[in-house]
Amino acid sequence: MSREGNTECSPEEDLNVSRTIKIILVSVGAAMVSIAVLLPIVMLFSNSFKYSKDVFAFPPQIIPLHPTFSNFIDIFIKYRFLRYFFNSFVVSSGVTIIGVIVSSMSAYSFARLRFPGKNVLFIGMISTMMIPFPVIIIPLFLIVQRLGWMDTYYGLILPVTFTGFGTFFLRQFYITLPRELDEAAVLDGCSKFQIWYHIFIPLSRSMMIVLGLLLFIFRWNDFLWALALTNSDRMRVIQLAIHAFQGQYGSEWGLMMAAAASAAVPTVAIFFLFQKYIIAGIKMTGLKG
Amino acid sequence: MKSKTKEYIIAYLLIAPNTVGVVFFVLLPILMAIRLSLYSQEGFTLGQFIGLGNYRNLFGDVIWWNSMKVTFLYTGMLLPLLFLGSLGLAVLANTRFLKFQKPFRTACFSPYMLSMISVAVVWMALLNPSRGLLNRVLSRVGIAPSQWLASVHTALPSIVLINVWWYVGYYMIIFLGGLQDIPQEYYEAARIDGAGGWKAFWFITLPLLKPTMAFIAVMLTIVSFNVFDIVYVMTSGGPARATHVAALFIFRQGFEFLRFSYASASAVVLGAMMLVFAIVQLRFLKTTYT
């Protein structure tokens, strides 16, 4: 990693004044940007602990003057958000687990094995990633309808699990692994499959975790497919539930904020716990190769 | 069995699950969309083959052209803001004068972790014309409050702004990755030669960032052309179709009016445009390097 310089001063920056001014300017600028960006999020969480009438109080209370847990209690128990959380969890986990396994197999094959049609298949797979979802949603909906998967977990999970992304992502990593590992394993009598299972999987654990996290977050936050596929309250995922809730209780801002904040907790928590992994993963999607 | 054949079999077996899934759930729908668009549609049956009939109707559809206009406007506003904003923030984050890079990076990135619905709820409260924080603050400072999402002229820009806030951190991280790949020695050499600051940025940073910039430009184009859910939830395409983007048009035709063939035709047009833009952009960016 390189930053634009190090702590050594070059000739024209011997003046501590000029350097200090730059540091102050940059720090103040960055601090202002940070505050501006974080403020809406802070207000979201802060408002969720306020009674609805206090949400729009001015001047805004970052720390509520009359805090309450009632919003959360109402949301989870009275309005059954526990069920919606459960649905989101099942769907996101399903997509994540299946996606990681299937992508890992596929990525290893594309990275290490030779077979006829390999390039065509790989490029084909990557190009499907470029097709935007609104283009395929209607036919996909019709296919799923014919399969009888409407309003089911199968329909929420399977049609959206198989994309080229996971394969692309893991292959980027696999091609950086030295071939000597493969060769040593072959000398030990391993089949190609065993190489994948006993060597590649353990080595790429952190990358597979990153992929899993990205898939989980993406599916947790998804709205459009769930909207198209489900119509029962029983199968609603959290994102849809909040939207439906807004239709009925949109003016009860305390409840809305609590619902929106709760939906954000898993992804925010994941991010804070696994920051390093996620950031590394995002950077990797930007690398050429 | 020859070992080469054995290797082929294992290779195919390994890619099978994912490939079959992609073929069935991505490729098949694409082909179906094209086929569907070439037929008239009567209820849930395919109807007659009418060739380009749907496309001709689309061409004369005022609402479709409006969606195109809105989508282009949206992209035209979002792309420069998000591109330059994230690049600027990445440069700021990478400078040696900033001592708290990690917290700054985390702060900028945090909006990305919120789901669309949470973003919508937060901003609908902030932009509430009468009670929202933004208008309250503006009027205190002496600036006239805006109607934001409720007015025809400010609705689309408001959505643009919300998306900038939401995504700038994500693209900043990608730019940051590209910046950090530039070897420090280049900057040191430049400084020794007497070129600091702006010159270094123009002659070292920018040229070496071209691949990253190309990647982001293409990603941004595709993503902003397909914007849907946040518009659906926050404005439903209004007021007066001021925010009625193309993806919303497709959704409405398909899921609200049940005109599957017509919707497929518009989807195919949108998809084809995406492909063309992506290819043109990549070609253009390739030639400006060499």
Can you tell me about this structure?
Chain A is mainly α and 289 residues long. Chain A is built from 14 helices and no strands. Chain A has helices at 16-47, 70-78, 81-112, 118-130, 133-147, 153-161, 165-174, 179-187, 192-203, 205-220, 224-229, 238-249, 253-273, 275-285. Chain A is globular and about 70 Å long. Chain A starts with 15 loop residues before the first helix and ends with a helix. Chain B has 290 residues and is mainly α. Chain B is built from 12 helices and no strands. In chain B, helix 3 packs across helix 11, helix 9 (197-225) packs antiparallel against helix 12 and helix 11 runs antiparallel to helix 12 (260-289). The radius of gyration of chain B is 24 Å and the shape is globular. The relative contact order of chain B is 0.13. The mean pLDDT of chain B is 88.
Helix-strand layout with pairing:
The complex is a heterodimer of chains A (289) and B (290).
Chain A: H1 16-47, H2 70-78, H3 81-112, H4 118-130, H5 133-147, H6 153-161, H7 165-174, H8 179-187, H9 192-203, H10 205-220, H11 224-229, H12 238-249, H13 253-273, H14 275-285
Chain B: H1 3-37, H2 53-59, H3 62-94, H4 101-113, H5 116-126, H6 133-141, H7 155-180, H8 184-192, H9 197-225, H10 229-234, H11 246-256, H12 260-289
Helix pairs in contact in B: 1-12, 2-12, 3-7, 3-9, 3-11, 4-7, 7-9, 9-12, 11-12
Provide keyphrases for this structure.
heterodimer, A: 289 residues, 0% strand, B: 290 residues, mainly alpha, 12 helices, 76% helix, globular
* Silhouette of chain A: globular
Q: Structural class of chain B, please?
A: mainly alpha
What is the beta-strand fraction of chain A? under 5%
Order of helices and strands of chain A: HHHHHHHHHHHHHH
The most extensive interface between chains reads: A-B, 106 and 106 residues
The span between the termini of chain B is 49 Å
